[in-house]
Specification:
The protein is of the alpha/beta class and 266 residues long. The protein has a single domain, classed as 3-Layer(aba) Sandwich (Rossmann fold), CATH 3.40.50.300. It has a six-stranded mixed sheet, sandwiched between helices. The chain has a four-stranded antiparallel sheet with strand order 2-1-4-5, with helices on one face. A hairpin with a 2-residue loop joins strand 1 and strand 2. Helix 3 packs across helix 4, helix 4 crosses helix 5 and helix 5 runs parallel beside helix 6. The longest helix has 18 residues. The radius of gyration is 18 Å and the shape is globular. The termini are far apart. Adenosine-5'-triphosphate (ATP) binds next to strand 2 and helix 1. Belongs to the ABC transporter superfamily. Drug exporter-1 (DrugE1) (TC 3.A.1.105) family. It holds the Pfam family ABC_tran. One of its GO terms (molecular function) is ATP binding. Keywords: ATP-binding, Cell membrane, Membrane, Nucleotide-binding, Translocase, Transport.
Length: 266
């Protein structure tokens, strides 16, 4: 097994606040790795450093063998990134959105149309490709954003809360596509989530983040085995490692954001 992501003592400070406190871990090629944690734990900050959108305060990491501080362009061209915020333009069609990303990724002109059709077909949006994205459902927009991130055939795909605000059917469709990517393309997937169910269904390994630290890491079964009690599930694991955060971690903010996202997507 080869570590495709290597994180060493990674720190991010915002003023006096240390959002990420020297975390270290590795992700092997072909894994679906999930960072699970309450809001404010430092998940998005970590994903933004690994995708080169934020510079670390200290420590470092490599992604696909490229240094996230000194080889930012090489990292960017070898990864796909689906951010939490909306990245598709509602005033363009699905096809037009993909064309912009194909140009951004410098896909050769002669290959663009064919590759756009391939990714549209993969996410099941071929028939909707000529419609304005503002008429898409939340699930279709998410699938389009996944398609955007796949155009340049990245080896690692980063997703920041891929299914927040989606209904169960749309969420299942995203999960199915991610599993297909892993199985058919040996793609490594790194995602953040609040959802225990998402982590349990999708992830081969999970890191639980709490107040800027990774407090537990392992397969879902390994993590469950660290917790006492009869047949513990990931909820029990989460409460065990980050329980007080569930009580005090600003659930209002989480709820408000999930609703905002749902409104925006729906
Ligand atoms: N640009 C910023 N400036 C100042 N503080 C920030 C900034 N970005 C994040 N933080 C703070 O860093 C901490 C970690 O935030 P982060 O968004 O990484 O957490 P998270 O685990 O992704 O939470 P959520 O699930 O709510 O997105 C929080 O206390 C947040 O307020």
């Amino acid at each position: 097994m080869t570590a495709i992501i290597q994180v060493r003592q990674l720190v991010k400070r915002f003023g006096d606040h240390e959002a990420v406190k020297g975390i270290s871990f590795e992700v092997e090629q072909g894994e679906v790795f999930g960072l699970l944690g309450p809001n404010g734990a430092g998940k998005s900050t970590t994903i933004k450093m690994l995708t080169t959108l934020l510079s670390p305060t200290a420590g470092g990491a490599t992604v696909n063998g490229f240094d996230i501080i000194h080889q930012t362009n090489a990292v960017r061209s070898s990864i796909g990134y689906v951010p939490q915020a909306l990245s598709a333009d509602g005033n363009l069609t699905g096809f037009e959105n993909l064309l912009i990303f194909a140009k951004l990724y410098s896909l050769p002109r002669a290959r663009r149309k064919e590759r756009i059709e391939e990714v549209l077909s993969f996410v099941g949006l071929t028939d909707a490709s000529g419609q304005l994205v503002r008429n898409y459902s939340g699930g279709m927009i998410r699938r389009l954003e996944v398609a955007q991130s796949l155009l340049h055939q990245p080896r690692v795909l980063f997703l920041d809360e891929p299914t927040v605000g989606l209904d169960p059917v749309a969420r299942q469709a995203i999960w199915d596509h991610l599993m297909q990517l892993r199985q058919e393309n040996d793609m490594t997937i790194f995602l953040t989530t609040h959802s225990m169910e998402e982590a349990d269904s999708l992830c081969s390994r999970i890191g639980i983040m709490h107040w800027g630290e990774i407090v537990a890491i392992g397969t879902p079964d390994e993590l469950k085995a660290t917790v006492d009690g009869e047949d513990p599930d990931l909820n029990d694991v989460f409460v065990y490692y980050a329980g007080d955060a569930l009580e005090s971690g600003g659930s209002y903010r989480e709820t408000s954001r999930a609703r905002r996202t749902a409104r925006r997507l729906g």
